[in-house]
Amino acid sequence: MGYKELVDIEDGLDLDPLILERTPCIQKLVDDFIRFYENKYKITVSTTPDTAEIISSIYFSLFYKDVKPAVNNKANRFKMASLMELVIIKTQLLICPGDEAENKKLNALFAMNAALSLIDCMINNAEQEFFCDTKNTAVDKEIEKILDDHRLWLETKQVNEMPVFINAQFYELIEFLHKIPIQIHAF
Fold first, then answer.
1. Which end of the chain is flanked by fewer CB atoms within 10 Å, N or C?
2. pTM, two decimal places
3. CA-CA distance, 26 to 126, in Å (whole number)?
């Protein structure tokens, strides 16, 4: 997994060195996604200055201040992926030509790719798209619709809303659905 450092966190660390240490990993996440997006959509993406450091700072600050204490220091990769996704939506640091709606769409897609990249078996890195193959086309289409609806929610929700825990459950359920080999007329 290309971003394992982001979910491998020890207790009791000083945040400033942790934020600086993890910034290059987040920069790789940003760069990988931009490369994917520009290749797929043929649209040039820019970032605000210090994008990775801003994401890293907010992510680790909220993680240690709000997430870990709320779950008795037992945060899992789904909560961490959820937090990363919501931080990206909150900051809206990727910029594409066009209007605000296009920017929200870009950042929603980046946020989902980042979250899926942090969950081990979903996608290996942010240069890939999530692909569901349950062996049942109807189920795959429904999962695709659920993911599209989630992207739409990310585009339209208030940027300061941070429902980390319910969002984490969403990703845990998506991972479960992704793993099970559903077949037509199977018993």
1. C
2. 0.86
3. 11
For residues 117 and 115, give the distance between their C-alpha atoms in angstroms, rounded to a whole number.
Answer: 5
Q: Where are the domains of the chain?
A: 14-186
144, 101 contact by CB (below 8 A): no
- Torsion on CA atoms 72, 170, 112, 135, rounded to nearest 10: 130
Q: Please, where are the H alpha helices in the chain? A: 15-41, 51-62, 68-70, 77-91, 100-118, 137-156, 164-179
- Kindly tell me if the per-residue pLDDT of 131 is higher than 80: no
Q: Residue 94: phi, psi to the nearest 5?
A: -90, 140
Decide: residue 74, CB within 10 A, 0-12 exposed, 13-18 middle, 19+ buried: exposed
Please say if the pLDDT value at position 183 is more than 70: no
Residue 167's SS3 state is: helix
